[in-house]
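Check the record.
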Amino acid sequence: MTDLSEVPPRLKRDVGLLPLFMLSAGSVIGSGWLLGTLNASEDAGPAAIISWIIGAILLIGIALTYAELGSTYPISGGTARFTWIHTGTLGGFFAGTYSYLQAVAVAPMEVEPSLGYLNAKWWHGLVNNTTGLLTGTVLIIDALISPGGTGLVYLASTSRLSYSLARVRFLPPVFASIDRRGVPWFSIIFGGVFGCFLFLPFGSWAKLVGAITAASSFMYSFAPVAAVSLRKSDPDRLRPYRVPGLAIIAPFSFIVSGLIIYWSGTGNVVKLDLAVIFFLILYFIARRFDPTQAPIDFKAGAFCIPWIVGLTIFSIFGGSYVGGYPSVFRVKISHHLPFWWDIGSIAVFSLIIFYYAINSRLGPERVNTNVLVAVADAHQEDLDLGIAEPA
């Protein structure tokens, strides 16, 4: 047996078929299949079924763009690296930050329903009913395992995300610290503490879901831009899967992402902005202590700034159904965007940002260099993990 002190610390990536299946199931089946359907049914009744169908239709385009990107550039950390390849450091930072934020909020989100299930009146009623005791026991065990397992899965995946962000130098090096047993200890502690603090601004399951939805949509919005940009700047690369009609699907998916961000609620969007500013400060701290970092590619990644700020402004001036603010800094907002006008305005704004992002992308030479760097980084990470041989 090898002494752990004799080998350098590295992450573990030994996953069998059953653990892989359980991880996949745990990341999908949480509290949403119960509480999500409950909240939707309370608002829309039986028509909530239609909303699930509409949601699937709207989001299929984003899934297709990720299918093309993932098959063309099979590298770890794709949600950040796809954007980094065609925008450089600034765009990669924003994509990676939103990827981290949507993941770090899942664990605390799953704690709240677990506590709620334990205190539910229906459970106490079943316990007092002899015939319902067995059924109640099965339900409460499932109600705890389902969200609890999802929370553990995302706590681990969040630590890997922050570890990867530190490896590409978007976070200070301490986030890449791992112990002799291959555990990214600092990333786990930070993710747990940061997740607990999320209870303060959000508090409830529904509000946390809104925040995760907004962060996920910001993350997803970078995929259509990356797919089109990389087809233009890296056209000769073999693409095992090509999205048919990408010229239509990509801008449409970008519009959908903007609308979902807007619909997630003004409070969630503004609070996410503050979280991004916090990580932006960490990024500049990382740059301060690492003078060898590459320059910030402002031109190629600048579209992120009007995209984030613009959607925040739309959200603040949005209608009551998204929680538009009545005033900002004690200045009263007399007019809010009426329904349909807000949707149309966001659609036009999204198209402007989308084509601006495409036209400000990095050139073919820089993109090809970034692809080689990303592949080399991924290979080096595999070497560190002990799952690859030296080239």
Residues 4-385 form one domain. The chain is about 70% helix and 0% strand. The first strand starts at residue 327 and ends at 328. The first helix runs from residue 17 to 28.
